[in-house]
Amino acid sequence: LKKWASRLVLLLMFITTCVWLDTIKHRWYVFDTATLHELAQDAIASSPNDTSGMIQHIVKNLTDTYPSTQIRLNPDSSEWVFNNAGGAMGAMYLIHASITEYLIIFGTPLGTEGHTGLLSADDYFYILAGEQWVFSPGDLEMTRYPPRSLHHHPRGTVKQYKMHEGCFALEYARGWIPPMMPFGFMDTFTSTLDFPTLYKTVRITGREMIRNLLIGKV
């Protein structure tokens, strides 16, 4: 009984700590959702019909705006990796990853569709090119997100989504990022068995999270 009582106390302490941390996680956010939306629209305007140019515009703006003492960014836009999650397949370039935020370019020239996942963070899709379609249970019509639009996927909700041919987006997540990783990795074990890509994804993500923790960015 003493052993189980001790375990219960530790569990309650852990839950209490998690609840408390959830109430203060906003203190560690660096990016602003409205500013990112403006940046995405500026990128489209600066390089119309040129997704590569949009990406370079975004990365340059971010590196010029945020000092490396505040947040660490990954300027190497050649570090693209495949991403299979929820049945959907695309590629991503990780611009930033920390415990409470990530910022990526995600998309595919071929098109894909799948499950959004039950996420532990709010997810913001700023559509740069192409079009995203979204459906929630009970909806009788889909919602369309063309270039320049924002699709906000709140934490704890689930949807079906489709990205058409040539759809690319600036994706920003804010909340608790590590609990989202099993969703991002599970298709490797249940379907693709693409362990080299999993290794590369873990290596890049872990490297960026550690680089940010070393400067105090949680």
UniProtKB/TrEMBL annotation:
One Pfam family hit: ERG2_Sigma1R
Subcellular location as annotated: Endoplasmic reticulum membrane
Pathway(s) this gene product operates in, as recorded in its UniProt entry: Steroid metabolism; ergosterol biosynthesis
Record-level GO cellular component terms: endoplasmic reticulum membrane
Acyltransferase keyword on record: no
Keywords, sorted A to Z: Endoplasmic reticulum, Membrane, Receptor, Signal, Transmembrane, Transmembrane helix
EC number from the UniProt entry: 5.-.-.-
Signal peptide positions on this chain: 1-20
One GO-annotated biological process of the protein: ergosterol biosynthetic process
Family the UniProt entry places it in: Belongs to the ERG2 family.
Protein name as catalogued: C-8 sterol isomerase
Annotated source species: Crucibulum laeve
